[in-house]
Design brief:
The protein has 623 residues and is an alpha/beta fold. It has 25 helices and 17 strands.
């Protein structure tokens, strides 16, 4: 009896030992390695798999600031014809990818090194999240065995990006690269677009032999060393096992929410019964699959007054009879129906307070949270559609065939708009205490912008003035940071936009404060032959902040800058520079023409415009 009990106990222990051993072997990939093997002699590396996947998805540009963790990706991508564009700051690389995403309707791609390379991108990634731009961020990291052990630039990167990105993943095996990247690219574009992050430990990117040299295998003969060597070999084999098995890259169809036919019909009925309808159109209207030109054409057919914001600026062209720019508050107060097409009731609409309680409101947005933002407090939607803005508007417009907006309603809005435009223009003639009138400069630029121009907005006070004066010539020809209000987007946005539209004349409208964030990118423009023109409103001040700070607190602490020679900075980076002040005010047009000529000949240009103060921006918000 005792013998039987002892045998059972031994058998149980043996079973547990075997089970644990099998579990451990499975955990370290031993059985997968047995089935698939790892080619220890191959000179191929994971960077090739990354490049192949991106190439199959139609990626044309990769933005980066070089780092050893990601070098294999950069080299392999360039070999496959992906244009690798290196910038002077990682944030600029993300902003450039963001611009490519907005203008191309695809995913913008950026690759940066581990640790500080990734932390430098955080603000730009958050901006892409809030602007709903599909951006793929590729980041290096410490080797799989060295995470958390004090390796160079090793931090918990996932904790940083999980709150910012729709999808986050770490590559632990080369065989995962293609499917994970394919999934990430799909997630970036689906539903509400946004940034995604894929982390690549350095041992998943370099060739097997090189990784083996760095792992620390020893020739020691002790049992511990032999077991350790076996474990390290097995781990590396598992990282590389199955890497080169044939695995086709097939892009996953993008998931887009569409409105139902009954929802469209309800919208049509509401609008048909309205007398004073207004449509507010935001950036989501420019997302695929609806071509922006098609949407613009249908909107013009139904003739409902439109106010455009974000990337939708320019959708209806420079001068459209149904587009209004200056009287939005008045229009919303009197409208009996308002369509919020990708427009959110955040600070830009006073959290919904500018909407009349008497108005019927149709809200359209891909994002459910944004769809109902602040509802129940100052506004409530009559009808809320969680759907793609462009296709929904297109269907509504087609359902409204024969609908005619009350001409008196349009006439009243036009009169208000024209009166405000006239008042704005008159401000350009007012004298300033020192230097040039910023309104006058911007009106002159507006007269001279060609039809193929693209405008990038990066700044506070001067750029806020420009938003009321400059008219984008067509769809997708205006880029601003969006709801996050990030300074420093200009350098990257301009780079990405110029690569997408090389024949367009690219203008960055800078404040002197914001120019400091990306001045060094004029070196990037020179090296990569992407000429742009920067118009800097230089008032030697953070004016948007100073205006309220001085009024409320009595001091302009930390708001003063200097009238720096930014034009000379451009020349140091291989560009051209011009100073525009009162001494050459009579030659303003000549100087602007010279800048256009320089850019056409391949030179980036900085126009350093010394400006004074006006009352144009009084009452604008800074918080």
């Amino acid at each position: 009896m005792a013998c039987t009990v002892l045998c059972c106990a031994v058998a149980s222990v043996l079973f547990i030992v075997i089970a644990v051993l099998i579990f451990v072997l499975q955990k370290i990939g031993y059985f997968y390695v047995l089935l698939h093997g790892a080619d220890r002699e191959s000179e191929r590396h994971g960077g090739e798999l990354v490049a192949e996947t991106l190439h199959k998805h139609g990626v044309k540009f990769m933005f980066t600031l070089a780092g050893g963790h990601i070098s294999p990706i950069l080299v392999a991508s360039e070999k496959l014809g992906i244009r690798v564009v290196d910038t002077r700051h990682e944030a600029t690389a993300v902003f450039a990818a963001d611009a490519v995403a907005r203008l191309s309707g695809t995913v913008g791609v950026v690759a940066v090194t581990a640790g500080p390379g990734l932390t430098n991108t955080v603000t730009a990634v958050k901006n892409a999240q809030m602007a709903e731009s599909p951006v793929l961020l590729i980041g290096g990291s410490a080797a799989t065995l060295l995470k958390g052990r004090g390796a160079l630039q090793d931090i918990d990167q996932m904790s940083l990006f999980k709150p910012l990105c729709k999808f986050c993943a770490t590559i632990n095996h080369l065989r995962d690269i293609k499917p994970v990247l394919t999934k990430a690219l799909h997630a970036a574009q689906s539903d509400t677009p946004g940034p995604v992050f894929v982390e690549f430990p350095i041992d998943t990117l370099y060739p097997y032999k090189l990784v083996a040299q760095e792992v620390g295998l020893s020739s020691g003969r002790g049992l511990f060393q032999k077991v350790l060597n076996w474990y390290l070999h097995t781990h590396m084999d598992n990282v590389f096992a199955g890497a080169w098995d044939p695995l086709p890259v097939v892009p996953i169809p993008v998931s887009i929410p569409f409105a139902s036919s009954s929802e469209i019909q309800k919208c049509v009925e509401l609008i048909s019964r309205s007398k004073k309808p207004v449509i507010l159109i935001g950036s989501q209207s420019t997302l695929p699959p609806t071509p922006v030109d098609n949407l613009a054409s249908e909107l013009k057919n139904i003739g409902i007054p439109c106010f455009l914001g974000g990337m939708a600026r320019g959708m209806l062209g420079k001068n459209s009879p149904i587009q209004f720019r200056q009287c939005r508050k008045d229009a919303l107060k009197e409208a009996d129906l308002v369509v919020l097409a990708g427009i959110v009731c955040d600070f830009r609409l006073s959290y919904g307070r500018v909407l009349s309680r008497k108005s019927k409101i149709i809200s359209i947005n891909r994002n459910k949270e944004q769809l109902y933002k602040n509802s129940g407090f100052f506004w409530n939607p009559t009808l809320a559609l969680q759907s793609d803005v462009g296709s929904t508007l297109l269907s509504i417009a087609r359902g409204l065939k024969g609908f005619k907006c009350d001409p008196e309603w349009i006439k009243m809005l036009r009169e208000k708009d024209n009166a405000k435009e006239k008042a704005n223009s008159a401000m350009g003639d007012q004298p300033t205490d020192v230097h040039l009138n910023p309104v006058k400069i911007l009106h002159k630029l507006e007269e001279m912008l060609p039809d193929d121009s693209i405008i990038v907005a990066d700044g506070g006070d001067f750029v806020g003035t420009a938003a009321y004066i400059l008219r984008p010539r067509g769809p997708l020809r205006w880029l601003d940071p969006g709801a996050f209000g990030t300074l420093g987007v200009g350098g990257g946005f301009a780079l990405g936009a110029k690569l997408c539209r090389p024949d367009s004349e690219l203008w960055i409208v800078y404040g002197d404060g914001s120019f400091g964030y990306s001045a060094a990118e004029f070196d990037t423009y020179t090296r990569h032959k992407t000429p742009v023109i920067a118009l800097i409103g230089n008032d030697a001040c953070w004016s948007q902040i100073a205006r309220d700070q001085v009024r409320i607190l009595g001091r302009g602490t930390a708001c003063d800058l200097a009238y720096c020679s930014y034009n000379m900075v451009a020349e140091g980076f291989g560009g051209r520079g011009y100073l525009l002040d009162r001494t050459n005010e009579d030659r303003m047009e000549t100087i602007l023409r010279a800048a256009q000529k320089d850019a056409a000949e391949g030179h980036s240009v900085v126009l350093n415009c010394l400006i004074g103060k006006t009352k144009f921006r009084e009452g604008s918000i800074s918080v």
